[in-house]
Structures are given as structure tokens and as C-alpha cells.
Amino acid sequence: MMALATIIVPAMDAAAKLLGQTIPPLEVSFSRFVFQGVFAVAAALVLRQEVRIFPPRFGLHVLRGCCISIATLFFFSALKVMPIADALAVFFVEPMILTMLSALFLKEPVGPRRWAAVAVGFVGALFVIRPGAGLFGLAGLLPLGCATFAAIYLLLTRSLAGTASTLSMMLIAAIWGSALLGLALFVATGFGVEGATFVVPDGPELALMATIGAIAFASHTLLVLAFARVPAVILAPLSYMEMVSAAVLGFVIFGDLPDAITWAGVALIVASGLYIAHRERSVAAKA
Predict the structure, then answer these.
(1) What CA–CA distance (Å, rounded) separates 118 from 6?
(2) Is 171 helix (H, G, I), strand (E, B) or coil?
(3) pLDDT value at position 139?
């Protein structure tokens, strides 16, 4: 289930990149949460499962939905100018950012070896972005912004565990993600912001939007089912299978293939992430 989830997620990124050629990333991100909400409601009706949209600690649930929507907007905006594999490689510093945030806000103990792994991971990200080389400009920082907000989202998810069902949390995130991005799209369209004004999608574009929402819903469900059965530290290394799927789809659909320096950066990021997962597993075993 974990492997399947990581393999299909780049298909969502590929669809978003295709849409980004004619539809603003803000609108693509908005549609992702709208359709994710539709699929969540449909699943609740089919499974006859009650969902709560006003659970305990409601404010944090709202913040969680806003964080994942901003992360999505940053990543889809990056895909407009970056190959999928490159953007995903930079995004994979998320475990390093999560380690930093856990130490700062949850007061979780982080030893010098894990801090060293965090530093190595960020060096790997610099290999991919290569600031000053003129490859992606400021857009190269967007996956870092995505990773930061995704880490906050995961931190809130960990904190809110048990306050609502999986479907409820998915629907709440969809509602507030849609609300935030929909408001931004409305304002941008009203002020005529270039590259962010609403475009009426045609049939194929609408189908791609629905596909993005379906993949988002399916992959999240698979992840939840996987993590319910096996500890996170065991599953975490499988997430890097996403890089393989992203590289294949990027090459087949867009003709993009990471260069040697990018692969070196990917190697540093993956090695850092795997080491952090290993250390977390060792600490958990001792506890």
C-alpha cells in the first residue's frame, strides 16, 4: 500500500504540470482540494461513515488544511518551471525540516548525528537548486516552501491524532484548503493578477482536475491504511520510490531527465532521509 501510494503520486504531479501550461497553478491547486472533498464525501456516503467537520481543537484542524493547501500551491507553481523529479528532490528535505520543527516545538530529543544528517540533506537540496546558476531562479525555492508547510501539516496531523476520523480530517483539509485557495483565486481574478486569474477549463482540463483530486484522495487513503499497520519509521524509506516514478513520468511525458549533479543532490537527500529514519527507529526501539 505504501509503495503503491508513492508510485501514483507523481502521476498527480504530471497532471498538474500538464494543466499548468494553460491553467494557473492557483486554480489547479484549488481544484485539487475541491475534487478531494467530493471524493471524501462520496466515500463517507458509500461506507456510511459519519464525518465531523467541527471536531475538538477545530482551529488547529483549520490551520492544518491551510498548511497543506499552501504546500500544494508552492509545489504546483514549481512544476510550471521545474522538471517533476527536480522539484520532488528538493521537496524531499521535508523529513529534515520535520526533524527541526519536532525539536523546536515538540521538544523531541535530536542528537548531533541527526542534526548532521539534516545539514547534509540541505546541501543536497543546494545541488539540485544550484542558486546563482540561473537554472530555476527564485522558483527553485518553491519546493522548499512546500516542504516547510508539508512538515507543519504533518506536525499538526501528529498532534491531532485521535480527534477525528481519517475521512473527517481529509474532508476538513479539503474544505479549508478550498476556502483559502478559492479566496486567493477570487481576489487575484478581481485584481487581474497576471498568471493567477481564473480560466474556464474545457472538458479534458476538467477531467485532469478530477484525476488530480482522485489521486490525492487515493494516495492519502493508502498511506493512512499503511501507517495503521506498520510503524512510520519502517515505511518512511519506501517514500523515496516516488523519485523513480517521477523521473520516469518526467522523461516519458515531458522529456526531462535529471543531470548528474541533480542525481548527486538526490543521493545526499535520500541518504540523509534514510539515516534520520534509521535513527528514529533506533530511538523508538530503545524506548
Answers:
(1) 22
(2) helix
(3) 78
Q: What is the DSSP letter of 239?
A: G
Could you tell me how far CA 118 lies from the centroid of its own chain? 19
Contact, 99 vs 114, CB < 8 A? yes
- pLDDT of amino acid 192: 96
Virtual torsion, Cα 238, 176, 39, 216, nearest 10 deg: -20
- First-residue to last-residue Cα distance in the chain: 27
Cell of 118: 539534516
Rg (CA), the chain: 19
**Look-up of cell digits 540541505:** 122
User: Do 17 and 211 contact (CB within 8 A), yes or no?
Assistant: no
Q: Which residue type occupies 248?
A: V
Distance of alpha carbon 102 from alpha carbon 95, whole angstroms:
10
d(CA 114, CA 279): 7
Grid cell of 85 as nine digits: 523529479
* Residue 196: per-residue pLDDT: 95
CB 74 within 8 A of CB 142: yes
Look at residues 17, 144, 168, 138 and name the one whose alpha carbon lies nearest to residue 70: 144
pLDDT at site 278: 80
Amino acid at 203: G
Nearest to 210 by CA among 69, 12, 49, 66: 12
Question: Please, what are the averages of pLDDT over each run of 10 residues along the chain (287 residues)?
Answer: 89 95 97 96 92 93 96 95 90 86 79 88 85 64 92 86 88 96 98 95 96 94 78 72 89 90 90 84 69
Q: Which residue has the cell 545526499?
A: 268
The pLDDT value given to residue 284: 67
Question: CB–CB of 87/250 below 8 Å?
Answer: no
